[in-house]
Amino acid sequence: MQCSRGYFNTDTWRITWITPEIFMMTEVIRPNEISPPRNDIYKIMSIQNKTVTMVNYWTGWGNHKPDVQKFRIQ
Q1: In what order do the strands lie in the sheet with 22-27?
Q2: How many Å apart are CA 22 and CA 37, to the nearest integer?
Q3: Alpha carbon distance 44, 10 (integer Å)
Q4: Three-state DSSP class for residue 74
Q5: What pLDDT, in 10s, does the model give residues 27-57?
Q6: Whose C-alpha in 40, 63, 71, 74 is 20 to 30 A from the C-alpha of 10?
Q7: Burial (Cβ within 10 Å: 0-12, 13-18, ≥19) of residue 61
């Protein structure tokens, strides 16, 4: 899957489905030789028209609460 946020560069991700509503995205293109790939875990809450509402569960360092995000399907 490829995705971008407006003016940012496009990222390429591998999708692994855990359940029909939960999936993990793993970065495919390495930003450099020493960084591990980024991973994001999402749960789909709803799909209405061309808007998907999902919860992003933090997988990195630190303690962050789950974050609700909305994406537009193109």
Answers
A1: 2-3, 11-17, 22-27, 39-48, 51-57, 67-72
A2: 19
A3: 22
A4: coil
A5: 888 888 898 888 999 999 999 999 999 999 9
A6: 63
A7: exposed
Q: What are phi and psi of 14, to 5 degrees?
A: -100, 135
- What's the total number of domains in the chain? 1
Could you give the C-alpha distances from 14 to 48, 56, 65, in angstroms and in order?
Answer: 24, 16, 24
From residue 11, alpha-carbon distances to 26, 40, 47, 73 in Å are 10, 13, 22, 16
CB 59 within 8 A of CB 39: yes
Q: How many CB atoms lie within 10 A of CB 13?
A: 19
Q: How many residues in the chain?
A: 74
Range of the domain at 31: 2-72
pTM for the whole thing? 0.76
